[in-house]
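pipeline: protein-struct stage 2 | run 1193 | Undecaprenyl-diphosphatase
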Amino acid sequence: MSRTDKLRYYALTLLSPMVLMAAATYGAGWAVLAWPSGEAALSRELAAGRDPVWNAATDLGSSLSDTPYIVALTALAAIGFRLWLRRWRESVFLVAAVWSQSLIFLATTEAVGRHRPPVQHLDPAPPTSSFPSGHVSAAVAFYCGVALVLTTRVRGAAARAAIWTPAVLAPLAVGFSRLYRGMHFLTDVVWGLLLGAGCVAMAAWAILRRPAARRSSAARPVVRAGSGRRSP
């Protein structure tokens, strides 16, 4: 593949989907602001039922996707995949999944400009707006991205379930924690889940899918013109 082909390939498989997801995120945020959903009632109900046990549990749940942790964990996982698999593909995939959701989040959250829920916030409010939840999208991108790489190396439903169960529970725990602690509305969390999943799927399609395509192309038998025979 020439350099021009590579640029075209990544523009189609990474850049274009990111632009579309950013546009969809902005559109969804605009729609949420245009048509109030009454989500503040849920935030108030959760705030009214807070207790010390859940406060501590959600503090831990929210920290699973704090930015310094996600950055450090992504770097460690990328290095680990490189050393383990002796190639960069899986590492690049994980970094692309995590950072693409971060770029889309940063490009859209200020433009949407949604205020935080009207309850006491149990965490310091970052300067970004409430929509979408960057904590949740980062959690999906990192934990599900790691699980996707690991499950390509194991066989058996039990092993895959053991990998995917915590990978799915972690973003859900982050989402509930952010909701409980008054940092996000429900739609912020739901869109964060969708955004993270979209970035994982995009990076997997663009980066993890390519070797299989090349192998299948290389393994395809060549039919010699006029001979009617296939060369190995």
